[in-house]
């Protein structure tokens, strides 16, 4: 659980990065309409949540930096019994001042007036450049004296790169819930079930354990469907002899997990499936073993391409010398994506991969990323041996960079052939 002291510390770190005589503004996410007068479940803006821990809509956070002093102001929806009857209780100004360690709390109705007051003497304005136009219009209305405008999101995203111990605990809790969900599905007799039935089992497990449902739309891809990387239809009938690629993770207290396992419908891998699966698994284990401070993500990806290419040659899926195949990018037909991505409050965490000078950021203690090599062989691919066609395999774990190496936060989720088959038998 993230404490109010930690949120305050984050705000103080952000303030130190702001220019003197500046104002920075972050807004809560807006409610999104699903259809007519129905709404999607509300989810707070990640940067706003990272700095405040506040989960209500129609709110804003303002930072004012003078020459020697800084001030943090939270704007919230005022208490209104009539609105609360329909939409639920609000924290309100009085309780927000008690709960959140900010300098001032005001009704959101006062935002424009207070913004105008502080922008009169400010020289710099920071805001999220991806902000909706209606909000940008408000900011620019009072920005006639502003000399520079900067993207505050870039500063916050850089802060999000290194996770605190409490953040890691939230991620670990999300992974532990996801473990239960994946193991639940591994144990099922899946023949003649539909993909959406497995999705329902996964998401039921997420919700009953207090997770904010899924961290992204679950992928449950049987057979050839696994060769569509962002497959979310989840409406096909599962058949004996096929593999199922399941990419599913939950969100716990706004922190994500992102796990992929590939399992047999019938609970047992065929000989050819086992060979291809073990090749991908060996590559994944090798790449994870390389992670430590000072290493670059691009180095991991380059090595994963080499190892997967060599494996494809050994299995007769590619023909030729590995070096030449890599140069001609022949491997990309079967391995088209990257080795992994940052993970945190967003499943694809909005943290930078490069410094301002364009150089790649190296791993450091506290970073969390996914490692997910995969091989995808379409059922109509006549270049591949018939026994491998219609097979997609991806294995994904969530890794924490430590002071001397790394820790696989999801290592307890079954992934060897023997572990997966044993769970089914249990």
Describe the model.
By secondary structure, the chain is α+β, with helices and mostly antiparallel strands. The protein has helices at 4-17, 46-52, 81-87, 92-99, 111-119, 133-141, 152-159, 165-187, 195-208, 271-289, 297-314, 322-327, 417-425; strands at 22-27, 33-35, 38-39, 60-65, 70-76, 104-107, 124-127, 148-151, 219-222, 243-248, 251-252, 255-256, 259-264, 368-371, 374-377, 391-394, 397-401, 406-408. It has a six-stranded mixed beta sheet with strand order 6-5-4-1-7-8, sandwiched between helices. A hairpin with a 4-residue loop joins strand 17 and strand 18. Helix 8 crosses helix 9 (195-208) and helix 10 runs antiparallel to helix 11 (297-314).
Q: Which outline best applies? A: globular
Give me the secondary-structure category: alpha+beta
The CATH topology of the largest domain turns out to be Creatine Amidinohydrolase
- Helical stretch count? 13
Strand content: 15-25%
- Please name the CATH architecture of the largest domain: Alpha-Beta Complex
**Broad CATH class of the largest domain:** Alpha Beta
Any idea what the radius of gyration is?
Answer: 24 Å
Number of domains: 2
| DSSP helix fraction | 25-40%
Mean residue pLDDT: 96
Number of strands: 18
> Biggest sheet: strands, sense, closure?
6 strands, mixed
The strand order across the widest sheet is: 6-5-4-1-7-8
């Amino acid at each position: 659980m993230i404490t109010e002291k930690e949120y305050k510390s984050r705000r103080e770190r952000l303030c130190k990065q702001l220019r003197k005589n500046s104002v920075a503004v972050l807004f809560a996410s807006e409610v999104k309409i699903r259809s007519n007068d129905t709404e999607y479940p509300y989810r707070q803006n990640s940067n706003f949540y990272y700095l405040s821990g506040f989960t209500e809509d129609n709110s804003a956070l303002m930072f004012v930096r003078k020459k020697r002093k800084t001030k943090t102001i939270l704007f919230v929806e005022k208490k209104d019994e009539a609105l609360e009857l329909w939409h639920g209780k609000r924290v309100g100004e009085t309780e927000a001042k008690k709960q959140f360690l900010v300098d001032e709390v005001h009704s959101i109705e006062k935002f424009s007036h207070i913004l105008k007051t502080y922008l009169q003497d400010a020289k710099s304005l920071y805001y999220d450049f991806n902000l909706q136009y209606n909000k940008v219009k408000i900011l620019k209305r009072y920005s006639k004296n502003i000399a520079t405008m900067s993207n505050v999101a870039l500063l916050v995203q850089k802060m999000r790169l290194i996770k605190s111990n409490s953040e890691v605990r939230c991620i670990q809790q999300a992974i532990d819930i996801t473990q239960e969900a994946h193991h639940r599905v591994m144990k099922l007799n899946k023949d003649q079930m539909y993909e959406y039935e497995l999705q329902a089992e996964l998401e039921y497990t997420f919700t009953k354990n207090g997770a904010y449902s899924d961290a992204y739309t679950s992928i449950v891809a049987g057979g050839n469907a696994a060769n569509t990387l962002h497959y979310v239809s989840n409406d096909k009938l599962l058949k004996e002899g096929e593999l199922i690629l399941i990419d599913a993770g939950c969100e716990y207290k706004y922190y994500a997990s992102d796990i992929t396992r590939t399992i047999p419908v019938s609970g047992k891998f065929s000989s050819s499936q086992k060979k291809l699966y073990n090749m991908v698994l060996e590559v994944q284990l090798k790449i994870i073993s390389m992670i430590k401070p000072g290493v670059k993500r691009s180095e991991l990806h380059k090595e994963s391409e080499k190892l997967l290419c060599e494996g494809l040659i050994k299995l007769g899926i590619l023909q030729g010398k590995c070096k030449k195949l890599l140069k001609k990018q022949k491997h990309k037909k079967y391995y088209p994506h990257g080795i992994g991505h940052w993970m945190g409050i967003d499943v694809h965490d909005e943290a930078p991969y490069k410094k301002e000078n364009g150089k790649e950021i190296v791993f450091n203690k506290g970073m969390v990323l996914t490692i997910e090599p995969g091989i995808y062989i379409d059922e109509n691919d006549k270049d591949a041996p018939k026994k491998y066609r219609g097979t997609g395999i991806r294995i994904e774990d969530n890794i924490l960079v430590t002071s001397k190496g790394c820790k696989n936060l999801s290592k307890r989720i079954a992934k060897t052939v023997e572990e997966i088959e044993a769970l089914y038998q249990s």
